[in-house]
Design a protein that fits this description.
single chain, alpha/beta
Length: 319
């Protein structure tokens, strides 16, 4: 379950107070989720340094190189060498790796060997927006701390279009109505995929040009191409999850109104979800919402996407 940066800090502080603080953490989340703010607070607590803790002598930071945007083996070896040295201030040492998904295979393997036998009183913090790009063995050596923004995220144009479709769709409708909603959902997914592919292709072409200018090897360029292919899939899944969340919130708002809750996720749709709450029982709303939870589970497995959507929508919106 994702946490706000403040929630994550409180939980990690509790672990530290009980002597259960791990040596390696993977802090994940979208841009703006508070990864660096959490890191600043953790560094202050671990080092006892309240003013600019990330500039402490025993904080070692590694980021992608400016031109290639890759973390290579030379930079990783330099970081590991620094960690093998004695602490400058006689306390713990912190290793911070920003955009950890940008490690090339050699750097990732060198880090893995260090994580398997970490230097004493050294803490590793890997930050990533794309943790699925990391080696499974690296993931297994870290405790993930997933973050979410404390602020309510704005509704995108596609999410707004889906809410409008939900307003117009008859609940308990016939097959034609249900499959009409399925088609609208599929169209939004197709639009999202096309936009994401266009963006990541442009980003790769730009980086490929820079890599060629600095004389990068072909395997390094191929590695970045593989990264952008995986990034496309990851962003598509995030877009798909965001659309599915709109439908889950739709049913949740109806449940809230049944039980007199003052707040709803989508107040502009309050009239439509209130009508839904009046027509269906709590048990029926929960049954229909459960179909969406099943769909989310199916998205995480090797199940044909369109078939999974059709089955779930029949359960959620059918008679």
């Amino acid at each position: 379950m994702p946490f706000t940066a403040d929630e994550a800090f409180d939980l990690l502080e509790q672990s530290r107070a009980r002597g259960r603080f791990a040596q390696a953490y993977l802090i994940t989340g979208a841009p703006g989720a508070g990864k660096r703010r959490l890191l600043d607070r953790l560094a202050a607590a671990l080092l006892g340094e309240k003013k600019d803790p990330l500039k402490h002598h025993d904080v070692h930071v590694l980021e992608p190189q400016m031109k290639s945007r890759v973390i290579g083996i030379e930079a990783m070896q330099e970081l590991i060498g620094s960690l093998q040295m004695r602490s400058m201030m006689g306390g713990p040492k912190l290793a911070i790796i920003h955009d950890a998904e940008r490690m090339n295979s050699s750097a990732a393997n060198a880090l893995l060997r260090t994580l398997e036998e970490p230097p004493g009183q050294t803490y590793f913090f890997l930050l990533s927006t794309q943790p699925e790009q990391l080696l499974e063995t690296t993931l297994s050596r870290c405790i993930e701390v997933p973050l979410r923004s404390a602020e309510k995220q704005p509704v995108s144009a596609r999410q707004r279009a889906l809410l409008d479709a939900l307003r117009a769709a008859p609940m308990g409708g016939d097959l034609a109505a249900v499959f009409g909603l399925v088609r609208q959902f599929a169209v939004l997914l197709a639009e999202a995929k096309a936009d994401i592919e266009e963006q990541t292709e442009a980003a790769f072409k730009k980086e490929e040009t820079l890599l060629k200018q600095v004389g990068a090897r072909r395997d390094a360029i191929d590695e970045r191409e593989d990264f952008y292919k995986a990034l496309t899939e990851s962003r598509y899944r995030a877009e798909r999850d965001g659309l599915l969340a709109m439908i889950e919130q739709w049913f949740a708002d109806a449940l809230r109104q049944q039980h007199g809750a003052p707040e709803v996720d989508h107040p502009e749709c309050r009239e439509a979800t209130a009508a839904l709450a009046a027509r269906l029982s709590t048990a029926e709303l929960l049954r229909r919402a459960a179909a969406l939870g099943e769909l989310r589970d199916h998205f995480g497995r090797n199940i044909q996407e369109q078939l999974a959507i059709e089955c779930a929508f029949l359960k959620a919106f059918g008679a």
